[in-house]
Amino acid sequence: TKPAMRVAVTGAAGQIGYSLLFRIANGDMLGKDQPVILQLLDITPALPAVKGVVMELEDCAFPLLQGVVITDDPATAFKDVDVALLVGARPRSKGMERKDLLEANGAIFTVQGKALNDNAKRNVKVLVVGNPANTNAYIAQQSAPDLDPNCFTSMLRLDHNRALSQVAAKTGKPVASIEKLAVWGNHSPTMYADYRFATIDGASVKDMINDQEWNANTFLPTVGKRGAAIIEARGLSSAASAANAAIDHVRDWVLGTNGKWVTMGIPSDGSYGIPEGTQFGFPVTCANGKFEIVKGLEIDAFSQERINITLNELMEEREGVKHLLAK
Ligand code: NDP
């Protein structure tokens, strides 16, 4: 049997953690033949709740789960990890400005970036889920100078999956038949879900839908505001689908996509005019543990406008945390 992979999860006592941990331990993320050791981080007051979740993990008797570490110390949590899911983040509380949110999270992600830098495996795969995810990933990456910047990614996969399900509903075709969908930009309502290149059984989705008004005024707002709609309906945020998207993201990164496009937030290599290093959602393919941006796609005027909006938002967020990264 394979040696166990070490997987860190932060915010392990939270809602997303409660969906995520069981699926990782069940082999949904790294494969049904891949043993795992979970290294769970949360803040000190949340540790009793983490212990409770771990009791439930034990009671599942997952054959692949070879060990669990519970800690409030990032260095311990990230020791020798192969994968790190950074889920814990400071939620926006009442009366909190975006600036304060960036500040609170900046403090968390500088510390965690440094701890990854000093403790994780050199080829660690980091996925930031905690919001603002792209900027938190950028902060962590900037705080980890000894790691390859491409170790750090952020989660756009939930937006991608939401877009897939909307296109499936509109066309009446199964989600699994849709290929070449892309989501550009920030994990926020400004993200740009783009089905111009998408196909179903080889036929163009754009031609099939043939309704730019639906694209601009129904599809994009529905995908962009889906999180808020779920909070409104359920009284709680979208935790299970967020956990599922995190599983999809890491599984595809580790095990490959066989040429299929998926969306990942990754440090830009300058493609499509996105400044190098910016954590930006791009269509990618994955193979051999690496992602590659789908290059050479035509960006029309409508798309460019949408990409500019989401890029500007990211640039403003980056400006807001600049002082935290001053060397
Ligand atoms: P959740 O588990 O519901 O969410 C965690 C993070 O994921 C939030 O930043 C949330 O953003 C984000 N997120 C990204 N995508 C989604 C989505 N589609 N739906 C919902 N959330 C999404 O939060 P809880 O409050 O239940 O739990 C947070 C845990 O993190 C707690 O256990 C807390 O103790 C811990 N924590 C750990 C820290 C650390 O390790 N240093 C620091 C701070 C907290 P959004 O806020 O926008 O919903």
Automatic annotation (TrEMBL):
Substrate binds at residues 92, 98, 131, 162. The gene is mdh. InterPro entries: L-lactate/malate_DH, Lactate/malate_DH_C, Lactate/malate_DH_N, Lactate_DH/Glyco_Ohase_4_C, Malate_DH_type2, NAD(P)-bd_dom_sf. Residues 5-145 form the Lactate/malate dehydrogenase N-terminal domain. HAMAP family: Malate_dehydrog_2 (MF_01517). Belongs to the LDH/MDH superfamily. MDH type 2 family. This is Malate dehydrogenase. Keywords: NAD, Oxidoreductase, Tricarboxylic acid cycle.
